[in-house]
Amino acid sequence: MKPDPGGFMTRPASPAEFTPALGHPSLTGLYDAAIALMTRETVWRAALVAQLAPRDGEIIVDVGCGTGTLATLIKVAAPGAEVIGIDPDPEVLDRARAKALGRGADVAFLQGFAGLVANLVGRNRADKVVSSLVFHQVPIDGKRAGLVSIHAALRPGGELHIADYGWQRTASMRLLFRQVQALDGVENTRLNAAGGLPDLIAEAEFEGVEERAVIATATGSISLYRAGKPRSCSALTIQETGHA
């Protein structure tokens, strides 16, 4: 069964409908250790939080929050922010809740796909949306649906921040990235590796799309992207929200 590209799935997702952590449910318990070992996690997560610049009073949504590491870091950095983590995998959400509780971080965790973000948190509500190591493993229809829903969830002038595998610029990075493709699938990861994610972000009517950093890792290069939702409504925004 394929993911719901329209983002209207309201029942619990089954493992067949999303790519689990490390590509298989049996590997979920190893996810945190693998990410720390193979992706220079402390480097890119610190850079992403610095780029996000969370502030008290903001509503910040972590799409594809996984085991909750990033959502917890954001809440610790800005205790007065409302932080919401969204993921389709109930097992990793259980781990995320335990992790946040252990750090004393009050994070709300909700189950759902990227295409459900606006339904789950409300339209024109979030100040910032962040996502890490998610879009590379999502089919292209799911990437598009997720970005459109994120756009709808953000308030005008809101920000999107992504850390993910991007354009693998060198032969060595492309070779290393094959490890990720072996787990997450060549077809789903191809667009990211070719540098196509910024074009999809712009296609969803974000403005000022830019690659802020490129971090080499043992599994390929991870790019940090930033984009903004325009302060004025376009035709797409009106269609999303139902009003001008």
UniProtKB/TrEMBL annotation:
Biological process annotations from GO: methylation
Lineage top rank: taxon: Bacteria
Xref: PANTHER family: METHYLTRANSFERASE (PTHR43464), UBIQUINONE BIOSYNTHESIS O-METHYLTRANSFERASE, MITOCHONDRIAL (PTHR43464:SF19)
Positions of the Methyltransferase domain: 60-158
SUPFAM superfamilies from the UniProt entry: S-adenosyl-L-methionine-dependent methyltransferases
A single GO molecular function term of this UniProt record: methyltransferase activity
A Pfam family recorded for this sequence: Methyltransf_25
InterPro entries tied to this protein: Methyltransf_25, SAM-dependent_MTases_sf
EC number of this enzyme: 2.1.1.-
Name of the featured protein: Class I SAM-dependent methyltransferase
Protein species of origin: Brevundimonas staleyi
Keywords: Methyltransferase, S-adenosyl-L-methionine, Transferase
CDD domains with a match to the protein in the record: AdoMet_MTases
